[in-house]
Amino acid sequence: MITDPRFEPQVKNPMPDATDEGLRVYCALLERRLILLTIQNVRLRSVCEIATGQKYDSFDPRDMSYEEIAEHVAQDMARGLDLSIQDARDRVARNTVTSNSS
Predict the structure, then answer these.
(1) Are 69 and 61 in contact (CB under 8 A)?
(2) Cα–Cα distance between 70 and 67 in angstroms, integer?
(3) How far apart are the first and last CA of the chain?
(4) CB 54 within 8 A of CB 79
(5) 21 falls in which pLDDT band (50, 70, 90)?
(6) CA torsion angle for 94, 95, 98, 99 (degrees, to 10)?
(7) Which of 75, 81, 71 lies closest to 51, judged by CA?
(8) How far apart are CA 62 and CA 75, in angstroms?
(9) For 3-7, 58-62, 78-82, 91-95, which range has the lowest pLDDT when averaged over its residues?
(10) Residue 89 · residue 74 · CB < 8 Å
(11) Band of pLDDT at residue 15, cut at 50, 70 and 90
């Protein structure tokens, strides 16, 4: 099979061509941090999905207030754990206090 070099993809090294060792170390640290945050995000989403039975791909909390997020979680907890909505709201409120007590 003969391939035409005009149609081959150009693969580039994501590392800058700079010879500065500090820049290379900085880029490597940023990439490592990105990978760790991505893994943490997947783990946290998995926990939420297991607890509630709902996919969290459609859940976008960026434009929501704390109260809206808490209500969303309470609704999912009530459905996923077969609780009353009031019991789920109480648990969300209790967990908020517990997790934010410093």
Answers:
(1) yes
(2) 5
(3) 66
(4) yes
(5) confident
(6) -150
(7) 81
(8) 18
(9) 3-7
(10) yes
(11) low
Where do we find the tokens 């969303």? 72
* 35: region left, alpha or beta (phi > 0 left; psi from -120 to 50 alpha): alpha
Residues 102 and 85: their CA atoms lie apart, in Å, by 28
Which amino acid makes up residue 70? Answer: A
In this structure, which amino acid lies at residue 44?
Answer: L
SS3 21: helix
**C-alpha span between 58 and 47 (Å, rounded):** 16
Exposed, middle or buried, 36 (CB in 10 Å: 0-12/13-18/19+)?
exposed
In one-letter notation, the amino acid at residue 27 is: C
**By the 8 A CB rule, do 22 and 30 touch?**
no
At residue 63 the predicted structure's pLDDT band, cuts being 50, 70 and 90, is confident
Cβ–Cβ < 8 Å for 51, 77 = yes
